[in-house]
Amino acid sequence: MWLYALRRIILTIPILFGVTVICFALVQIAPGDPIQNLLSPTASQADAERLRAAYGLDKPLPVQYVIWLGKVLVGDMGMSIANNTPVTGEVLRAFTNTIVIAMIAVVIAFILSTIFGVAAAYRSGGLVDKAITAVAVFGISVPTFWLGVILVIIFAVNLSWLPATGMGAGGSKGFDYLSWSDFRFAVMPIIALALPPLGIMTRTTRSSLSEILNQDFVQTLRAKGLSEFEVMVHAVRNIMPAAVAMLGLQLGYLIGGSVLVETVFTWPGTGYLLNKAILTRDIPLLQGTILVLATAFVLINLVVDLAQSLIDPRIKRS
Amino acid sequence: MTQMALSPPPVAAEDPRDRGGPAQPMLIVDGIRKYFPIRAGVLNRTVAEVKAVDDISFYVLKGETLGIVGESGCGKSTLARLLMHLVDRDEGHLILDGDLVGEETGVPLDGLRRALQMVFQDSYSSLNPRLPIEQSIAYGPKVQGASSKVAKAQARALMEKVGLKANLFAQRYPHELSGGQKQRVNIARALALDPRLLILDEAVSALDKSVEAQVLNLLEDLKKQLNLTYIFISHDLHVVRYISDRVLVMYLGQVVEIGPVDQIYEDPQHPYTQALLACRLSMDPEERVEAAPLAGDPPNPVNPPSGCRFHTRCPFMEDVCMAKAPGLGDVLRSSADDHLAACHMVHPGSGHSRAPLPVRA
Amino acid sequence: MTDALANSLAAAPVQSAPAARVRSYWGGVWQRLRYDYVTLFCIALIILIVLSAVFAPWLAPFDPYKSSMAHRLRPIGYRQFLLGTDEQGRDMLSRLLYGGRVSLLMGIVPVLLATLVGGMFGVVAGYYGRKVNMGIMRTMDIFFAFPSVLLAVAISGSLGGGITNQMLTLTVVLIPPICRVAETATSQVRNMDFVDAARATGASTTSILFTHVLINVMSPVLVYASTLVSISIILASGLSFLGLGVSPPTADWGLMLSTLRQSIYVQPLVSAIPGVAILVTSIAFNLVSDGLRQAMDVKA
Ligand SMILES: Nc1ncnc2c1ncn2[C@@H]1O[C@H](COP(=O)(O)OP(=O)(O)OP(=O)(O)O)[C@@H](O)[C@H]1O
Ligand code: SF4
Ligand SMILES: [Mg+2]
User: Fold this and answer.
1) For the whole model, what pTM was predicted?
2) Complex confidence, ipTM
């Protein structure tokens, strides 16, 4: 068990290393010369060279990488080109906004998927099952940004129940998740984020539940006189470790994939930051945001794996 | 080449492919060894080795059938794959009809491939599920340079030879065949390169008794027709007795006993062979014995027991067995009639209480 | 967006073996497919979508690029505009037909390219094993450290918009999962005795790969790749939505959705239409690949 944990942690290091390599490469594949953008049009060739040297861009790539990595490790991810602020601060502020709604979304999806999964598995093949399965397929196939648009059309345009976009007057500083006047801004982003994981988790819960219900020991429980409800509780308890692991994974995907939903709702999270970086071609900001998100994704996966091996010591992955 | 004192081979028919003469063994295996590394730990380093085949020597005469028996996991298939060069050996030599195989001198690998073919253990995975069987059989000749047409004709002829109507079966896929038919295809494929030595790894083990008998008869017929030599691997002692001229008994990667089939079955020398045979008898209700003589699982081939590897299960175990590994004797210099066993009880002066007294000079 | 790519991998076919008692493998597949009406319907639907995209110039009632200030944002069924008009007064139906060309291209071309490249790496990794496998698969693992949308946005965001960059991005994103499926399938096949039997004939590695390995690896890989088409379409439309796809005024479903977003207060239904096109196409491809998997993956 501890050996597994240690091994799993150590295996994460080269992955994180690879992540930094890819993030570093993002700047390299971006077209255009960053120096030219900084120079005034009248600058001479010599000025360009001097600036290049000042930024260390005249050094060979591996050296540039090491210098860059050194800075990143102490929390310096450069300056955003668009508004000339440190990237680190901007990304971390946005990251908080992202992770909070992602967590709420994934917990809601988890609870609902358990309920739906149980309902579908209870009479597998029945009408409820079919309806739930259809909704699940929809949740999986639907493009989230379009779903966001539809939600806006329904709840903001037609019904005027919820604000369409943004974070309200307080903005990200004074946002209070516990007050409805603020929280209502988060409702639609949360729904849009929650639907796809809801579809996926419902499908897995349903299939693992019906698998368990078909096993012999469940027949034994029934024979012992347990009620259907007790049997179901037993089965649900059995699938919990896997379901919790699934929850962690989906959280990771939501954090990484929130860019489209946040763009639709102009929710000031990392996704929105990415969109801004793309529009203004602010490559340092793009790089910093991607780096933080990918690192978070890797770490969430790590935690999920470790948690799962704690819950279920039988799991021993190679 | 080592000159050996040999009894006349069972089949002395002249073969144009013969190079070393009828008395030269078809195949000599000299001190072959294969350890599989076991990797583990954070850095995936080799932490131990499975001693799957550990210093095995024997020879097969031209035209004979050498049976190989032993428990599951004792290294029979690994030995077969070593002979076929499908796994690289760590140590040892192969001498095919007088020529050293591989390395700088001697027959190139390609020559070995033509002369040695194998019928695999698992009839499920031994045929490509996406190829009609005709193509599976024709593949070898094609690789060796035959034209598509010639190879196909050859494949059809071989199918007839192993008792499958070519018209009916040529275009079928493996999943459309029964186990016995599949094994016939496997045999046909092995024969397609016109080999001299056929290694049959559990070739009939998965078959029903009646089908098994048919395939065994087929093998006997083919052997006569095509002047073949067999190495017949099986854990079924009845079958091995039926088909073999000589028998080699393996335990944990080593040879524990070798000799003519009747001597092995009627007068087994090694306690392991005795136990195997007793197990077999216990299947028979007439002669059921009380306790199975071979209790427990074979020890782990990663850390085989010291001294005699069988001492953990041997009823005659004494101190000397733990201290010293009993030798088999010089197999390669022995005659085919010799009966050798790697047990201190048969070696004079070994220190075992049941050993014959040393002959004083 | 949840990571459809990673989820698709979890459901990837691992080993397929043909069912019993049929004349040929593909004959059997067809036998099973024949009675799967949902799949057949979706196949027909896809053919229809493809045809309408290919023949868009003949089918489209209007020029998709001709704007008209007089007819901006007309509702569905307004006069001759069957699906209304967009914010520049261009006919929605015509733009949808033309837009299908880009979207389908983005669904299919990256998958094909990624299947070629990823499949090749996967087969090589699976067949040679050991160090080669380590090298290739550990590199792929790094790409798996990114959720697919994030990876696509990262690469596309750095490269900039444009149709070539978009295709390149999607191909890079799709390579790792295909590679993993191909690697798993290959290492399974590689351990089968028939490969050893082929080696025993003295065949070259190339010959064995082509005659014995590829043929067995192909169907799980192709079935898996077919599940990626709809994912690729959705990813592409997402990139276009962010402005990382084709540049205006080219018609593209994702881009149309993005520009029409400004107009949801005026014409909510018209604004939603491009999304319906994406959804229908993606569900159709999804169901077809499900059906194919079932038809091809029956265990013997
Ligand atoms: N490729 C391999 N890597 C590691 N260990 C292996 C490998 N192949 C075989 N072994 C090990 O070597 C030992 C001998 O295996 P082998 O297949 O030769 O046994 P066998 O006598 O043929 O058994 P069976 O009767 O079950 O076929 C076993 O302990 C097996 O686990
Ligand atoms: S050497 Fe000893 S332990 Fe080994 S078989 Fe003979 S008597 Fe038994
Ligand atoms: Mg074996």
Assistant:
1) 0.82
2) 0.83
